[in-house]
Design a protein that fits this description.
Distance between the termini: 66 Å
Bound molecules: nicotinamide-adenine-dinucleotide
Structural class: alpha/beta
Largest sheet: 7 strands, mixed
Pfam family, one: Aldedh
Radius of gyration: 25 Å
Strand content: 15-25%
Low-confidence stretches: none
Shape: globular
Organism: Scomber scombrus (Atlantic mackerel)
GO biological process, one term: aldehyde metabolic process
Strand order of the largest sheet: 10-13-14-9-8-15-16
Number of helices: 16
Keywords: NAD, Oxidoreductase
Family: Belongs to the aldehyde dehydrogenase family.
Length: 455
Amino acid sequence: MDTYSQVVDRLRTVFRSGVTVPEQFRRTQLTNLMSLVKENEEQIVKALHKDLAKPKFEAVLSEVHILTNELHYALNNLRSWMQPEYASKNLATKLDDCFIRREPLGVVLIIGAWNYPLQLLLLPLVGAIAAGNCVVLKPSEVSAATDNLMAELIPKYLSQDCYTVVSGGAEETKALLQNRFDHIFYTGSQNVARSILQAASVHLTPVTLELGGKCPCYIDKGLDMTSAARRLAWAKFFNAGQSCVAPDYVLCSEATRDALLPALRQVLEEFYTKEPQKCPDVSRIVSQRHWTRLMELLKKSSGKIVLGGESDEEDKYIAPTVLVDVAEDDALMKEEIFGPILPIIAVESVEQGIEFMNRQEKPLALYVFSNESSVVKKVLENTSSGGFCSNDGIIHMTLPSLPFGGVGASGSGSYHGRWGFEAFSHRRSCMLRGWALERLNGLRYPPYREDKLSW
Ligand code: NAD
């Protein structure tokens, strides 16, 4: 078996041969990736079920379809993305060709996370292939079934010379990171991101960080609470709350909270029955470690559980759970929850809600539910977050024409659609000059004279 440095050297030699650059090559690989997903959908759904008890519907919607949509979008737009972008010119460059050329970066590393193990590995790959790179893919070891399936399928469908899967955990990833890559695309936690940045700094490698954070949802008064509860509960409890863009906590007035709670109770029953543990639409927590972490948070919280709260360690199950009377310094507010636990925090006004959000790190997504466009506008204009969506959750990230990424502690860089292609491309500034107007150039050559400046 090759060592990691042999793997990277081999890919670099292949990259330098130029094989990944022609449009037709990129197109073929993207089409092959589409076949991988379509021909193996059943196996993919099974692996996701093994890893997270992911319901088939959620697996198809949030992993398979999002990927096939991205592939269609890339195949439809690839030619235009690859075209040179002509730049505006001034008098001195009037006769020149001035343009931006998108060039592949070289050998790039994509490190995936476990919560959407297919999507988070292969969606960046679409951008990397479209941009003409060679790629090392490192799936998350935590979602082992999907990791194994990817290691088996990718070499069957994609060029083995250009794309390689390396499996392993933290130690293997650290060893891999000792090598020089031309870009590192990392999805995962903020803590690990710090060591990724350290490793990247040795080779001055540019990095895209797709991280998480605590995504707030401000809920205004006077809403149709059943619709609000449906949209909130769907976004929060999809994949058992293990989504980087899941609403992490709710901010609302006490009166709104009192109207929201009965609606949430009714909606949770409607979605997941009276016995959610037996409901096939409820995912499980990915590992015993994460289950214990979530239960510790619940134990340490001084909030009051008003919905759910049941759990089963062996089954890695935690019921969709809602808490009230949660203070800003509560255990649940110290880290991203990343599970089916929703604290509701009372604020007196939208202004107080905005101040609350602005005291926290900038989140990956920020939500506001309101009938009033002035309230939506106020929250939009007075906060910062990777993405923003009013009157719904998660759904903004399904549109490939919107860049997806964080800001501040929730990440840097973005992808999806054209933005994925851009993330893995170098924008090379090009000026192609001829030999005309040499006399005009005399104005900038020595001997320098004052009057040449005022020309
Ligand atoms: P994880 O445990 O799967 O880790 C992510 C990747 O980092 C894995 O491939 C893992 O092997 C690798 N890794 C782990 N420890 C490492 C180390 N010490 N050095 C180098 N590599 C290491 O996933 P996680 O970190 O638990 O992911 C959850 C976090 O990811 C949450 O914060 C979530 O919000 C965030 N997330 C962000 C996005 C996004 O698109 N912005 C998407 C999903 C998840």
